[in-house]
Design a protein that fits this description.
Blueprint: E1 5-10, H1 16-30, E2 34-40, H2 46-50, E3 54-62, E4 70-71, H3 74-78, E5 87-94, H4 101-110, E6 115-123, H5 127-144
Parallel strand pairs: 1-2, 1-3, 3-5, 5-6
Antiparallel strand pairs: 3-4
Helix pairs in contact: 1-5
The structure holds flavin mononucleotide (FMN).
Flavin mononucleotide binds near residues 12 and 62.
Length: about 140
């Protein structure tokens, strides 16, 4: 299998999604992938996006906890530079119930031209185990692709 190179982009208010992004980077490296950079959607490292085959995009869920959940900053995701031809994996961190946030994120990310191949909602209390599972799931999915 040819190792993939991934860039991580996150949006984070209190640091949880940033930490999840950093853990995903470490876990993907342990699976043998290269990481071109970890940066915020607001200040993306354009070079790391350019150098990557796959972009991992993460944000946090905001809403009224059981209704009206949305991924935070969908417009920012739609405004990312066009990334046609690359793959994407999405994740959102949440406190109680993510609702349909992941599907809404996927729609926004697709508008940038990325092909969404995987995604996971990650409870903020289970960052370590869920980010590990996400990296394992993503690498095995693409090894079979
Ligand atoms: C204003 C606000 C609204 C939130 N609404 C929801 C919600 O509707 N459902 C949910 O599961 N979590 C909700 N959360 C919890 C966050 O999604 C969760 O804590 C997340 O991990 C925060 O990520 P961050 O530290 O990267 O900002 C909300 C948090 C805030 C601050």
């Amino acid at each position: 299998m040819v190792a993939m190179k991934a860039a991580i982009l996150y949006q984070s208010l209190t640091g949880t999604t940033r930490e999840a992004g950093e853990l995903i980077a470490v876990n993907l490296q342990q699976e043998g992938w290269g990481i071109t950079g970890v940066s915020s959607v607001a200040k993306p490292e354009l070079r790391s996006i350019q150098d990557a085959d796959l972009i991992v995009v993460g944000t946090w869920v905001h809403g009224l906890f059981v209704v009206g959940q949305m991924p935070f900053g969908v417009a920012n995701l739609e405004n990312l530079p066009a990334m046609r031809g690359k793959k994407a994996a999405t994740f959102c961190t949440y406190g109680l119930n993510p609702g349909k946030s992941l599907a809404k994120m996927d729609d926004a990310v697709r508008k940038t031209g990325l092909e969404v191949v995987d995604g996971m909602a990650i409870h903020r209390g289970k960052l370590r185990s869920r980010t590990e599972a996400f990296a394992a799931q993503l690498t095995s999915k693409l090894a079979r692709a």
